[in-house]
Amino acid sequence: MTPSKVLPTAIAALMLAAPIPVAAQEDTPAEGKSYRIFGQLTTIFERNQTGPEPIQPARLEYTKLKQLASFNIEWKRITVGAQAEYLYWSGPEENRDRLDLDRLREGFELRRYFLDYQSDLFSGRLGTYFASFGRGLTLYVQKNEVLQFDEPIHGATARVSLKHFDISALWGNVTEPVQQAQYGREFEDEVMGGRIRARLPLDLYIGGSAVRADLDRFFPAGTDTVEVWAAEAGGTSLWGVLDLAGEFSEIKTIEPNRVKEGHGRYLSAAAYVGPLSILAEYKDYYNFAYRYNLPPSAGRADESYEHNDVKGPRLLVSADFWSIGSLFHASYAQFNSHKTANSPGGTLGDHQIEWYAGIEQTIGRFYVLASYFDRNFVDREIKERHTLADFHLTVGKRGELILGLDQRLEESQYASLDITRTFLAYSISPWGTVSLRYSYEDSISSAKDEIVDYWGVELQYLPKPTIIITLFGGGDPGGLVCAGGQCRQEPRFEGFRANFTWRF
């Protein structure tokens, strides 16, 4: 039996055996009490009536009800917690959207369970947890609320903090939601690894990490073994003006019929001079992507980047003129593939140029945030544009009027895709927001030239600081959504959504 099956039972038994003082529901322990009880209840209702698509000719009609309940008890240095999920679908699996990360779930599931201990020198957890090593070259398994990535490691982890050293180790099983949605079955992988970091004089540090992952294959059935290690070094706030960081990594992927080797290199230097911040980065990744790492992109957190065959520098300059309420950003980068026979663009390479400019400005009651991202894959004749804009106007003592724009445009010699989202919202603090949303998808190819409009209304109500109620009716085009350096294709939506969250 796998850890994801055994550990929930063990943790649940410990929770049932623990005394539960039901009267304590405050955020901090009451006087004379050493424990704290807290948690969250979330209910999500969704009625989807998405129309036919070229790759999905049938109309997607289904109702989804998702109930999450988390409960935690904190006593001195020990915390015990669990989160249960119940998921109901109204129709068969073929009526569910292939991009929905909940598509393969149904019924009751214990999503979280843990026993946690914290002290000045030692911390450990048995159950579910999120983890990453260094800058994510060897391991990155973290929750991403925007993209709905919420798959923890099921196992155990521990950390020892000494005077000059930090030592971490972990082991467990983890599933990958995108793979599950793509191939229609659960992928359960095993990961284990550790990290050591030494603190040196002059704010310097050195360290290293190593991870072994046994990855479930789709075809042919079996397991791929990934072995990856990294050495890291740098210094923070050197002389008060300079941050340095570097990580050197090697990776080996053992497949049934071949062995692939690759590497990851990342260097950064940040300087702070008056209102200016200057960041220089360099990345070099080859055969380096696997399911559970996320190396620095050397780019924007809300854009998509390739981590398997790319190298090149990036320069970012920021200027913060707080006296006039202005903040400016600008960056420029040039990347290329390694010019091998298997690289994008082959031996000629895959040259790409990108630049970014953004501004934040506050003038009295008026605030504006605007940015423009431009990327050109020169050899493949692909151009990407991403425009963002938000305008805020304070109205009265508690009101705020907001106008927003988010446009992604991709053009090639064969086709183009333009997904644009706009919204007009009015917010009244602290009670909530009402917004009118309009989006459109403009898809042009040799076979079609189609524009699809989407209208929607969203209401968010906060009767108390601990309660959030969100209602949405209408449509959304979906498409590429990126956050925190991760991206996924969101499904289209037409229908009604409701979300209720209570934190206690």
Structure description:
With 504 residues, the protein is mainly beta. It has a domain at 381-504. 4% of the residues lie in helices and 63% in strands. It has helices spanning 3-17, 177-183; strands spanning 35-50, 60-75, 78-89, 107-118, 122-129, 131-133, 139-141, 153-161, 165-175, 188-200, 204-217, 222-238, 242-254, 259-273, 276-286, 309-321, 326-335, 352-363, 366-377, 382-395, 399-411, 416-428, 432-444, 449-464, 467-476, 479-483, 486-490, 493-503. The strands form three sheets. It has a 24-stranded antiparallel beta barrel. It has a two-stranded antiparallel ribbon with strand order 6-7. A two-stranded antiparallel sheet has the order 26-27. It is globular.
What can be said about this structure in brief?
With about 500 residues, the chain is mainly beta. It has 2 helices and 28 strands. It has a 24-stranded antiparallel beta barrel. The chain has a two-stranded antiparallel ribbon with strand order 6-7. Strands 26-27 form a two-stranded antiparallel sheet.
Topology of this protein?
Blueprint: H1 3-17, E1 35-50, E2 60-75, E3 78-89, E4 107-118, E5 122-129, E6 131-133, E7 139-141, E8 153-161, E9 165-175, H2 177-183, E10 188-200, E11 204-217, E12 222-238, E13 242-254, E14 259-273, E15 276-286, E16 309-321, E17 326-335, E18 352-363, E19 366-377, E20 382-395, E21 399-411, E22 416-428, E23 432-444, E24 449-464, E25 467-476, E26 479-483, E27 486-490, E28 493-503
Antiparallel strand pairs: 1-2, 1-28, 2-3, 3-4, 4-5, 5-8, 6-7, 8-9, 9-10, 10-11, 11-12, 12-13, 13-14, 14-15, 15-16, 16-17, 17-18, 18-19, 19-20, 20-21, 21-22, 22-23, 23-24, 24-25, 25-28, 26-27
